[in-house]
Every structure is written in structure tokens, then in C-alpha cells.
Amino acid sequence: MLPPPGPARAVFGLALLVAMLGFSIAAGLGWVDRNERQQTTDAWLDRIQFEAVEAAESLNTDLRLLSDLAYGIASDLARGELPVEQIEARLEALVERHPEVFGVGVMFRPYAYAPDQRLYAPYIVKRNGVHEMLRVDDVYDYTQPEHEWFRQGITYARWHEPFFGEASQAMLALYCIPFRLPEEQRVLDGPGADGTVCIDYSIEDIWGLVGALDLGQTGYAFVITDQSTFVAHPRRDYVRQGRSLYDIAAQLYDPVLMWLAEQATDQRSGVIDHSNELTGQDSRIYYGPITATNWSLAVVAFTDEIPLDIAAHKQRQIAITIVLIIGAIGLIVMVASYRLGSKPMLWSGSFAIALLFLVGVANIWLQEFAEAGRDPPEAVMLVDLAGVQSYLDDYEETAQHQPYAPTAKIPTGVFVQAIRFESPHDFVVTGFAWQRYTVPDHDDVQRGIFFPDAIPTLDRREELFRFREGDAEVVGWFFKSSVHQPMDYSRFPIDVKTLKLRVWHPDMARNVVLVPELGAYRLIHPTSLPGVETGFRLPGWQLQRSFFAYRFHDYRSDLGIRNSAKVGDFPELTYNLTLRRNITDAFISNLIPLFVAALMLFAMLAIDTRDKVRADLYGFNTIKVLATTTAIFFVILLAHIDVRRRYVAEQIMYLEFFFFITYFTIVAVSFNAFMLATTNENRFFHYRDNLIPKLLFWPLLHGAFFVVTVYVFL
């Protein structure tokens, strides 16, 4: 049912058009935002999956080639086309044609090569990039029970579990195939093979292949055997120790990883979403078989690293908020158009519109506070040891082509007990730090840490302990430092701050990279606040997260040390604490005075009248209004000056716009009182005894708050 013909119907029609346009544009922007984020996500994940498939195919091709080469030698030996006295020449010819082969050898059973020679095992292996011939039987007795690969190798053809080769002095993936010499060449009687042909694929080569995948800054890949034993993993100790994916899943009580191990060892392929309760990271894992060896390749891509345009998303969300408010205002005006002459209806519409603007302001604040859950800009968050190693592998590969000293990685931990702000740009931090040095590898590395942002006269450090633990020397310090960190207060009081404790090593001449010792923390999920004292409190702030990160920083100087690693993008370790300002405290101390001033101004506006009887009753006159608004102005001005003094901001802060709006409101109320007292009839000020300015007060005030909020945060 439409309003009656006339102005009410015209208002209804215009409001209906505004509402339809507002909601339609909001729906369109929402679709665009969701679609673009989904397309970006899908494209990124598709690329990761494509890289995983390509890597699996490449690895499968390499391994199949190696098994074919071993089969060729075994076949030629069995047919008599390769005399035993020409084996060494054949091995040398093979590595000349296939330099990618790490090692290849022929191992005979005892006395199978010659009646007077117990063992014979020529083996050509790559050392320092050059192939050289050696005899395995000169290094160790490969027929002893501990050398399972030989016993299996003379029984059936297969790829063996990775192991450390004593002859090659390297981690190897080994394929062995048995051979039986023709009758005229056999030395031993009876059944069974005469030996085995073994060919090596260096684990380093597998690490290089999977490490070259572009999986984001901390994403990684790993390869496991059909027994779930790790062949390649960024944490190389997993491979050296012969650990399996089952071991890791059981250690972490992770049913998803357990299920992945079962699927991978069954040679299946697929995709699973995984959430690590220990680190808080969400990831997508692609896995598929390497058919040549019955191994499996898995790729872990962290969804936090999807290259979403956060700024564009935020802008679209704010735009959606704007058009939704416009559409909702249209609906309110449509309802009010049915009773335009009713004061209760008009006041209800006025308050409803003002409330809409406040909801819009709060929504933008919530979006801004979501910054507390985002990774630090120009940095890599470190919550997973495999991700740390994956990132450092890339750095070390780059560093190999630079004239730097070899990288010395020092595990480092931090435990913060207290933080106190001394000034808007300085904070005092108290706590403990420790480092773990490997002996004897780090014997020539100086022990110590320092904070480059600390104020020297207010930086105290005291060694607390130093002891040996296995092959490591652990050194710990107590510290109390005043750290200078320029802060941006342009959005105060809607603040999200990340306090960064930059940690350096004093041995500047060495390429020392500090690595977070994540294993020292029971939980490393950033929201579980690793490295922070239980019950930590910082007045006026809520601690949201704590985490280690590598900060990308080019110092643009070698700091006086030629060929210093700090000339390029050096991985500088930082310990970060993300703080969100307690908005309740900010409201009480800063915004409530403005709100009280607004109520007083509205009260003065509400009693503005041309009715002399009511004016005498209220004690209203223009002079008293001007005197009252002047008093309010000076009170607000003093509060404004106090805010500027406390935060020493170089730019206009978000809160200051509220002061500016209040100043303008004071002037507007004073002007309204003057215009109401004039004798000339004015339809705007005099209509129904100043009704229009009264109705517009809260919508315009809150609308101004909303406009400046959009301006600051868009």
C-alpha cells in the first residue's frame, strides 16, 4: 500500500529507489569481493598442486631412469655381454653418459667373483662434484648382518629405505637388483644370485628438487617411502634419524597426519586440509605416488600465505558498509513517509538513522581490529620448524652465490616477563634469552646477543647460566632493555601495535643467522602466547599474539665489514608481540567527555524555542547559549591539548577528528540559537519551532563520525 498522493508518495518513491540501489550495489560488491578472493585462492592452490604433480613426475622419471640403468648392467651380466673384468670400465662409461648418477656399483657375494677372492665390489661415487672409483670391500664388509641392503639386494629388486652410506659418506636412496652370471662364468655352484647391482640417488638431489618448489615462503614438500620413512624433509634430522610420518603423527597426536601416512603408504593421491593445533597454522596438503619407487610426495601449502589483496578486500568491505547504510536509510525514510507529520515517527527515524551510522563506525572498527590476526608486513612468521628450515634453505642457496662466510645457525629463545611503555615510542621489556651453540662447529663463534633498537644507557644484560648438554653449549641471559620503536598513532584509539624485539648476534664478521628454538616452547600457536609470562598484563592493552618472525631488511651497507651478509636481504630474527588497545579504557578516558558535550549541546538545542512562555520557563536566550557553548568549547579544547601532549603524534590522529566535529557542532548550535532569535521568518529554523535542526542533530553528528572513520580507514 502506497502513501497518499503528494509529497509523501514522492518521498516514498525516492527512498525506495535509494534502498534498491544501495542493497543491489552491496550485493554486487559482496559477490565481486568473494569471487576475487576465491579466484586468487583457487589459482594459488592450483599452482601449488601443479608444482607438486610436476615434481612427482620429475622425480619419478629420474628414479625410473636409475633403476633402468641398474637393470641394464644386471641384464648384461646375466647374458654374458658384460664380462666381469670389464665391470669397472662399464661403470665409468655409465657416469660419463649420465653425470646425474651419484653412485653405482656391483657387489659380489663371497667368492662369487673369484675362488681366491672373498669380496669384490667396485663402486664409483661422486665426491666434491667429481666421480671417483673405490672398492666398498676396502671400506667395510657389506655382507655383515647390519647391512640389510645387500641381503635384500641379492634377493629381489627394490628401492631401499634411505641410509647413510659409509663408502659414499652421504645420505643415499639406493636401488639394488640381483644378477646371476651365465653358467660358463659362474664360480659358485647352487641356486641364488651372484651379486647385486646398486645405483644411488643422493638424498641431497631429492632435497634440491623438492626444495626448488615455489610453495610460498614457509611451505615445503617431503618424500616418504612405502613404510612412511622420510626420504626428504626440510628437517633433515628426520631423514638422518630414520623417522617416519607415523612417528610424527603419534608424537603430535595428530589423526590427520596419521591418515595421510596411511593414504600415502597405500600409494594413493589426494588433497586434505590440515589445521595444526600446536602452531595454529592451516594448510592444504597435496600427496601423490612416485610409482617408480612406491614412494609418495606430499606438498604442504600454508593458507596464510595465499597472496590475497588485503587492502582491496578491506576497501570493498567498507564500501559495502557504506551502501548498506544508504539502503537502510532508504528503508527508514520509506516507513516514515507514511506519517511525515507525526513527530514520534520523525524522531524514531532520526534516532534509527543515527544508530545506523554508529553501527557502521563499529563495523569498520571491527575490520581494523582484525589486523591483530594478520601476519606482520614484510616479514615471515615462524611457527613451524619445517617452515623455518624451508625458508633458510632458500636463503642459504642464495648466499652460496655471494662472497659470504658459511652460514652459522644459532637456535635462540626469548621469554618476556614484563613490558612497560615509557613514552609513545619507547617501551621497557624485561625477560630472559638463551642460545644453543653446537660443539665443536660453533667453537669459533662468539657467545652473546644484543638488541639494536635498545637505548645503550638503558640496556642491561646479565649472564645467568652456561652449561653443556650433549654436543651443545647453552648460554642464557637476563635482560632489561628500553627499546625505541617509532609507532603510528594516526588511527588512535583504534590501535593494533606489534612490538618488535629485534635480536642480533654480536659476531658481525660471521654470517650468523639466529633461528628460533621453537622446540623450547610447549605451545607455539601465536594465540597461546609462547614466550610470555603467565598472567602477563599491560594496562590499556590486550595481548593478542606472540611469535617469532624473520624480517626482510636490506641495511644498504656492509656496516664496515666487507662481504657482509647484511648487504642483501638478511633474515633478521624478531620476537613480536601483537597488542590491541583496550577500547573500553580509550572510550572512558577520551570519548566519554565528547559524548557528554554532545548531550549538553543537544539539550540546549532541544530547549531552543521562539515561544516566550517556554523560553522564560527554560531560562533560554541567545546570550546564555553562547556562554554555555563557550564553556564547553574550552573544556573540550583542554582535553584535545592533553591528547596531543600524551601521544606526541606528528599527524592528525583519528580521535582528533571527533574533537573537530565537536567544535563544529558547538558553532552550529550557537548559530542555530542566533537564527532562531531573528525576527525574519526562516522555513529551516522556524518550521514547527526549530524541529528540523533538532531532528538532524544526531544523524548529522554520527554521520560525520562515520564519514571521518571511512576517510581514515579506507
Summarize the structure.
This protein has 714 residues and is α+β, with helices and mostly antiparallel strands. Helices cover 43% and strands 24% of the residues. The longest helix is centred in the first third of the chain and has 73 residues, at 7-79.
Number of helices: 17
Strand content: 15-25%
- Secondary-structure-based class equals alpha+beta
Largest sheet, if any? Answer: 7 strands, antiparallel
Q: Overall mean pLDDT score?
A: 85
Termini separation comes to 40 Å
- The parts where pLDDT drops under 50 for at least 5 residues are none
Tell me the helix content: 40-55%
Counting DSSP E segments of at least 2 residues, the number of strands comes to 21
Shape: elongated
Cα-atom Rg, whole angstroms?
37 Å
Pfam families: MCP-like_PDC_1
Organism: Billgrantia campisalis
Keywords: Membrane, Transmembrane, Transmembrane helix
Protein name: Cache domain-containing protein
What does this protein look like?
By secondary structure, the protein is α+β, with helices and mostly antiparallel strands. Helices cover 43% and strands 24% of the residues. It has 17 helices and 21 strands. It has helices at residues 7-79, 87-97, 136-139, 148-153, 203-211, 236-240, 245-252, 255-265, 310-336, 343-369, 385-399, 583-607, 612-618, 622-647, 654-677, 683-686, 691-713; strands at residues 103-108, 122-127, 130-135, 158-159, 163-165, 170-179, 195-202, 220-224, 230-232, 270-275, 282-290, 295-302, 379-382, 408-423, 426-438, 454-469, 472-484, 496-503, 512-516, 541-553, 570-581. Strands 1, 2, 3, 4, 5, 6 and 7 form a seven-stranded antiparallel beta sheet that branches. The chain has a five-stranded antiparallel beta sheet with strand order 9-8-12-11-10, with helices on both faces. Helix 10 packs parallel to helix 17 (691-713) and helix 12 packs antiparallel against helix 14. The two termini are 40 Å apart.
